[in-house]
Design a protein that fits this description.
Blueprint lengths: L1 H33 L7 E2 L1 H29 L2 H26 L6 H23 L8 H25 L8 E3 L11 E3 L1 H28 L2 H22 L7 E2 L1 H59 L11 H24 L6 H16 L2 E6 L7 H21 L4 E9 L2 E8 L11 H5 L6 H10 L3 E6 L5 E6 L1
Parallel strand pairs: 5-6
Antiparallel strand pairs: 1-4, 2-3, 6-7, 7-9, 8-9
Helix pairs in contact: 1-7, 2-3, 2-8, 3-4, 3-5, 4-5, 4-6, 6-7, 7-8, 8-9, 10-11, 11-13
Length: 479
Amino acid sequence: MRGRRTEERVVRGIGVQLALAAAGSAAITLVFVSLPSLKLGYRAPALHVALETAAALIALLAAFLVFGRLQRDGRVADLVLACGLGVLAVSNFAFYAVPAIAETRPHAEIVWSAIAGRLLGAGFLAAAALASARRLGRPKRAGIVAATAAVAILGVATAIAWALHGHLPLPAAPAVHAATARHPELDVHRSFLVVQVLGALLYLVAAGGFAVRAARRNDGFFRLLALACVVSVFSHVNYFLYPSSYTEWVYLGDAFRLAFFVLLLAAALREIATYWRTATSLAALNERRRLARDLHDGLAQEIAFLRSGVAQVDGPLDDPQLALRLAAAAERAEGESRQLLAALAAPTEATFEILLAETLETVAAREGVTIDHDLAAGVTVDRVRAEALLRIAAEAVTNAARHGCVDVVTVRLEWVGARLRLLVADRGRGFDPRLVEPDDFADGHGFGVTSMTRRAAAIGAELSLRSKVGGGTAVEVLV
C-alpha cells in the first residue's frame, strides 16, 4: 500500500532532517570555537533591534495560526503551543524591541524579565510537545483563559524583577575594553549560564516531542517546529559559550536564534498553505455532492417516475412498440443519471482523513453523538481500502451510540510503524464477548462484528475488538 511506503519515508525523512540540523549546528559551533581568529561578535545595535522585532512578529503570526488550529481541532497541545508562542512574542516586544527603540539601557530588571519570558516560552513549547491529543469542550474559551493566565504569569515574573530593583545583577555585561577588542569579553553571572542550560534542555525535549508528533500524524507543521527547536538548542549552547545575549553585540547565538524564528516562519507559511489546499478541496467536494443531491432529488426521481409510469400505460397507441421504447429510453436515462451521481459523489483529491472526518460527522449527526477524533494528515489509501475502512468506522461509531449508550466516541487514525491504525473506542456499557455467539453479533445484538471482520479481511487488514461490561468497547483495525 502506498500509505505504508509514505509513512516509512516520512519517519526516515524526519530522522535524517533532525540529524542533519543537529550535525550542521554542532559543526558550525565547533568551527567557531576551534578557530579563535574568526570574528564572533559585531557591534550592531540597529541589527539587534531588527532581529528582535522580526522574531516578535514571527512568533505573533505563528501564535495566531496555532490559535486557529485550536479553534478547528480543540487540542490541548495546540492550546499550550499557542500560549508559548504568544509569550515569546510579548516578551520580545516588551523587553527587547521597545527598550531598544526607546534607547533604554539594559537595566537588570528588564534583562531578567526578558530571561523569564524566554524561559517561560520554552517551557510552554516543551509542554506542548508532550501534551495529550485530548479535545477541549470549549476551545475558544479555554484559549482565552490560558492566554490570560500565561500573560499573568509573565506579569508576575516582571513584577518580581522590578520589586528586586537594585539587587539583581546584569547576567552578561560587556567589559570596559570591549570596544577595542576583537570580540567583547563578558563578565558573566552564574545564573545566566544556568538559564542557558535549562533553555537548551527544554528545547531538546520540545524537539523530540514535536518529531514524534510529526511522524505519527505526518504533519509538516510539527516537523518544522522540531527542526526549529533543534536549532534553538544550539542557540542556547552558543549563549553559554559566548554570553552575548541582551547586549548591543550580535553573536553566533543570535544567528542560531534567528534561524529558529525563520523555521518558525516557514512552519507558519506552510500552515497557511495547508488551510488553502484543504479549503479548496473541501469546497470542490461539497460542490460535487451538492450537484449529486440536486440530480438525485430532481432528474433521477423524475426519470424513475417516468419509467414506472410508462410501464403502466394500457391504452391503445398508434405505435404498439412506443411504450416499450419509452420504457427502454427511461431505463437508459436512469442508468446514465445514476452513473453521473456516482461520479459526482466519488472522492476527488481529498485525502483519506478528510473523507473519514466527513463520514464521522455524518454518522455523529445521525446518531446524536460527539466524535473526538485525532486523524493523521496526508493519509493515502486506494479506493477499495478507503471504502472498507470508512464503512468499518461508521459501523463502529453507530454501535457505540446505539448499544454503548455514550455521548462521546473517540476515533484515532495514526501510524504504528509501517501500518495504519484505525481505532474507534467508547466508555459505554460494553459487553462480554465470551457470552455472545458469533451469529448474535450480526443479528440479534446488532454489533455488526461479523461484517466488520469480513470487510477488514477483504483488504488484508486485522480487526480486533476489546470490550468488558461497564468498561466500554474498542474496535481496532491495522492495515
